[in-house]
Amino acid sequence: QSVLTQPPSVSAAPGQKVTISCSGSSSNIGNDYVSWYQQLPGTAPKLLIYDNNKRPSGIPDRFSGSKSGTSATLGITGLQTGDEADYYCGTWDSSLSAVYVFGTGTKVTVL
Amino acid sequence: QVHLVESGGGLVKPGGSLRLSCAVSGFTFSDYYMSWIRQAPGKGLEWVSYISSGGSSIYSADSVKGRFTIFRDNAKNSLYLQMNSLRAEDTAVYYCARTVQGILLGYYYYYMDVWGKGTTVTVSS
Question: Any chain B CB within 8 A of the CB of A28?
Fold first, then answer.
């Protein structure tokens, strides 16, 4: 069971905006940087956002990240059909067992 | 171009062993931490283990501690995951990933910036 909670699904029409929340605690999000990953159907995950709000080369600025306290948010503007995927947040958790933790995952559907 | 290619997956009986490999190219392997992540059928991502660039620092998930061992051969540009005492719940696609980590402004950062395509492990009798 993941310690990072995301909504199971979000949806919007093409061109609209969606936001995905990632809720954690002081031992993970509250203490460390957050990254986000996109997993298109049948493919390996891909890094989308790192260090809370930075985009790797090649990731369009339609994708944005933010963090406040023990929560993080991924935003996708100008939604496209190609954005239909599963999205995961992730961060280091420095509790009793130091581990990396992923969020529960959110399925984005373009209506 | 950066490439990570996993191999070694397959069907194994409960209690059996398997060794996964990840061959990398396109970057200086010995400069990077590396991680293994898995995904059970229809489920989310689960981090399994990471190893430091020189191999001296290793962290693993509680679910695999004592059963799985991560190691690397920098001379061969390869990462490995030795899996023993396999259970049905270890059935998953296993990904290797290049890992970037460090401390910035007092906060720890850790992310996987390049992933392989994965190799499938099935534990079943």
Answer: no
